[in-house]
Amino acid sequence: MAEEHRYLGPENRGSPTIRIALASTVLSRGDTISNLKVMEDELARISGQGVDLIVFPELNLVGGPPRRQTAAEELLALAEPLPSGKAYSAVRDLARKYGAAICAGLVERDAGKLFMTHFFCDPSGFIGKQRKLFPVNPGKPGWADAGDHLEAIDYRGFRLAILACSDFLLPEPAILAGLAGCSLIICPTDGFDLANGQIAQKLLTARALDIGAHAVAVFGHQSHREEEVVASIACSPRGEVLLSETCTASETRTDIIDVVLPATPHRTWGNAEIRAGILRGSLEHIARQAPDGPAGRCPAGSAPGKAGLVR
């Protein structure tokens, strides 16, 4: 099923418009070949509709985030380097075949570490990636390592950030994206039922409004039960909900939306340099005040004043 929704920000007419497809797909745990086939099926189905970018759910190539330690261990065999691995190469070939940019996710292996990574490529090849900054609830142990910075990606005259699931549910990564001048936040996300989806929609709206950027989220699912789940959400820089769709857990649904993305985002809350200075000063103060206390502890691979630096 493919639905189409159009939105043109009135304050930005004349700026580049990008057509985004949000593919809420049924994922197969640990089966990269099946998940690649689902990607190609959706790309083929929307071919000819002028889609510039298609976004798939969180870790879609490996079947979504594991919910149990045993499932996590099964995913380790699928980990690969980026951008030289087989799964990435297959996605790049799809981008070339269908003439669209793609955001997809996998388990990245690098220097003995494992990351929940989402990458962005188009027919020209690899453009950028984001290692998930909060792979688990901060402070809890997990199988994946945390990314140590936000990677702003420049594309077609604007800047975007990939904030997967908890990276947009928590405020810090979106603040960094705003400070980096991003006009678009892409949020590949795990499966959410309707109750949790309402919370996710409120948080996505808050992130978009706070930094003056468009935000789009797409949700994956593994269940084959006929229950209703969240499919996709899109919000404007003014905090408007442009798109909020559901589907059954056994259904793949793709929604298409047009948005205008100015090279220089409208900032509701003022000067980015001032806000960055406040963050730096506050982190340094927290580190001095309680470096070993609860307020001073940071996720593995990070430290106050270092983690989350924009590159």
Explain how this protein is built.
Helix content is 27%, strand content 29%. The chain is of the alpha/beta class and 311 residues long. The chain has a single domain (2-271), classed as Nitrilase/N-carbamoyl-D-aminoacid amidohydrolase (4-Layer Sandwich), CATH 3.60.110.10. Helix 1 (32-46) packs parallel to helix 3 and helix 5 runs parallel beside helix 6. The chain is globular. The model is unreliable at 294-311 (pLDDT under 50).
Provide a brief overview of the structure.
The chain has 311 residues and is α/β, with parallel strands linked by helices. It has seven helices and 15 strands. The C terminus is likely disordered.
Structural class by SSE content? alpha/beta
State the total count of DSSP E strands. 15
How many helices? The count is 7
Spatial sequence of strands, sheet with the most strands: 1-14-2-3-4-5-6
First-to-last CA distance: 38 Å
> Which series of helices and strands comes N to C?
EEHEHHEEEEEEHHEHEEEEHE
* Radius of gyration based on Cα positions: 18 Å
Q: Shape, please?
A: globular
Count of the separate structural domains: 1
CATH topology term:
Nitrilase/N-carbamoyl-D-aminoacid amidohydrolase
Sheet with the most strands, sense and barrel status: 7 strands, mixed
Main features:
single chain, 311 residues, alpha/beta, Nitrilase/N-carbamoyl-D-aminoacid amidohydrolase, 6-stranded mixed β-sheet, 7 helices, 27% helix, 29% strand, disordered C terminus
